Amino acid sequence: MKIILACEGKTEVSLINSLIEKGTLCFHNDIIDEGPCVLRQLDKIKPLISILPLAEPIFVFRIGDTLKDEISLKGFEMRKEYIHSIKICTKPEIEMLVIIQEGLLLEYNKSEFYGNPKQFLKSKKFDFDPNEYFRRHNMRSSIIKYRKNKKHNKDEYYLADLIDWCNDGIY
Fold first, then answer.
1. How far is Cα 119 from Cα 113, in angstroms, rounded to an integer?
2. Nearest to 139 by CA among 157, 163, 156, 109
3. Cβ distance 57 to 2 under 8 Å?
């Protein structure tokens, strides 16, 4: 089994790298391309996939706040039944985890910025550098709290679910 951590943007890559470095997420040696990467479609890493055995199961964890587009399997017809796409949603934005981490959730919920975590943090003069912030903070508890406060679509999972799967050895 191989894993692709396909992130919507650099902020998600920073968070996932931090979770891996802190041991919150553990994929052993199953990750393709040495870790999370900004990736919307598989054609970018087609050479890495093509060297795998044809029947190798591949789990594509798509991590981001907007996951409307589907993974295209064009060029992967022979592998179609072995590629599984799983949406890991971070609605509304990764900055929401920072708000929870900083103990600002109640204030955020009462604010005029409700629904726009990035603007709320800016209004607090909070300089958010994802690499630095995630390096200094263990986001596990915020990710767990986030799952309790947000609702996703039926076909989407939470980062907390991904953590649970890794802890249970299921992923």
1. 7
2. 163
3. yes
Low-confidence ranges of the chain (pLDDT < 70): 169-171
Q: 89 forms bridges with which residues in the sheet? A: 64
Q: What angle do CA 36, 40, 43 make, to 5 degrees?
A: 95
- Interval 29-40: pLDDT, tens: 788 877 898 987
* Residue (of 156, 50, 146, 66) closest to 98 by Cα position: 146
pTM here is 0.88
| CA 86 – CA 66 distance, rounded (Å) | 13
Structure tokens at 32: 């393709």
CA dist., res. 142 & res. 144, Å (int): 5
Which candidate, 54, 5, 13, 63, places its Cα nearest to that of 32? 5
Query: Which segments of the chain are extended strands (E)?
Result: 2-7, 37-38, 58-64, 83-89, 156-157
- Would you give the DSSP letter of residue 39? -
**Sheet with strand 2-7: strands edge to edge:** 37-38, 2-7, 58-64, 83-89, 156-157
